[in-house]
Amino acid sequence: MPAVLERAVAGEALQFLADRALYWPARRRLLLADLHLGKGDVFRAAGIAVPTGGTALDLGRLDALLRVTGASDLWILGDFLHGPRSLAVEAAWRDLLESHPGLAASVIGGNHDRALDPAALQVSMLPEDVCDGPFRFRHHPRHPRDASPQHVLCGHLHPVVLLPGLPGRFPAFALKPAEIVLPAFSRFTGGLVIGNPDQRWIACAKGVLVENPR
Predict the structure, then answer these.
(1) Which conformational region is residue 181 in: left (phi greater than 0), alpha (psi within -120 to 50 degrees), or beta?
(2) Domain segments of the chain: what residues?
(3) Fold annotation for 4-211
(4) Rounded to 5 degrees, what are φ and ψ at 90?
(5) Span 105-140, pLDDT tens digits
(6) Which of 78, 80, 127, 145 shows the smallest number of beta carbons within 10 Å?
């Protein structure tokens, strides 16, 4: 089973990556959603015992994807942060950017991004609904009555699937006729199980991609 699947979406080649991201070669753009940096700190501050090191792990995974793809553009489709500002998180993020000279990083604000400081993080803020080529980029999925013909790429829902014979739940790209919901990039997140048996998806399962036959 592959770690990368290339599929034509709205007439464009997109690469689905097993580490929960999309790559758009025509724009050299890496796309991910729901990074939730600092989530462990928020839980520990509330007295909930969770392991440390989640931010470093996720930024290390992102660093590897940037190197493998050679992306010059990074778009995060909402929920870059999870809670209040953290100087340690901001410093770790800037260290990542410094290791990729010339990388342009942009963020669509999500519902957890109220404390996001673009200047401190050296990112550009994008509108909630931004178009490029045949795509619309958002944090939230399209409204059911939205009849726009452009293909939406979004996050927010953290889709996951159950795989026969394997324990646990696996992050997945939920594929709809005019929308792709990306899995949460953060390893420290819950998920919404895709329960519709007719829903197409591509699951990220321990370093490989599993595509359902719908």
Answers:
(1) beta
(2) 4-211
(3) Purple Acid Phosphatase; chain A, domain 2 (3.60.21)
(4) -60, -40
(5) 999 998 878 889 999 999 999 999 999 999 999 999
(6) 145
